[in-house]
Amino acid sequence: MNTESKIAVMSAYVDGDMIEYRNKTVGGDWSPYTKTVPLWDWPHYDYRIKPEEKKPKTLMIEIWADGMGRICECIAGTRASKFYRGLGWELILTRDPYV
Question: CB 3.0-4.6 Å disulfide test: which of 11, 18, 45, 63 passes with 50?
Fold first, then answer.
């Protein structure tokens, strides 16, 4: 880790950002750096600014029905959705599949 990277981590710590560390020899998972008085041990530990967690993508499901009792599901905004709309099918529900 170069000097600029170390300064960036320490500046982020001062600004209140979450810092993570791990042992250089052992490796493994990153752990939260929770010391109130930082003791930077650069020769033995790696430090980083905790990356932002990625939000999972949300897919909305559309449920379409025709006048004869047929029902189809598709992902909202896709070609299939436009196809059913073009056939004159009725959109009866839009829902989040994870709820």
Answer: 18
How does the average pLDDT of the chain come out, rounded?
A: 86
Residues 18-28 have a mean pLDDT of: 92
Distance CA 49, CA 84 (A): 47
Q: What is the pLDDT of residues 69-98, one digit of tens each?
A: 888 888 888 888 888 888 888 888 777 766
Interacting residues of 56 by C-beta distance below 8 A, sequence separation 6+ = none
* Sign of the Cα pseudo-torsion (36, 40, 45, 51, in order): positive
Distance from C-alpha of 77 to C-alpha of 84, rounded to nearest angstrom: 11
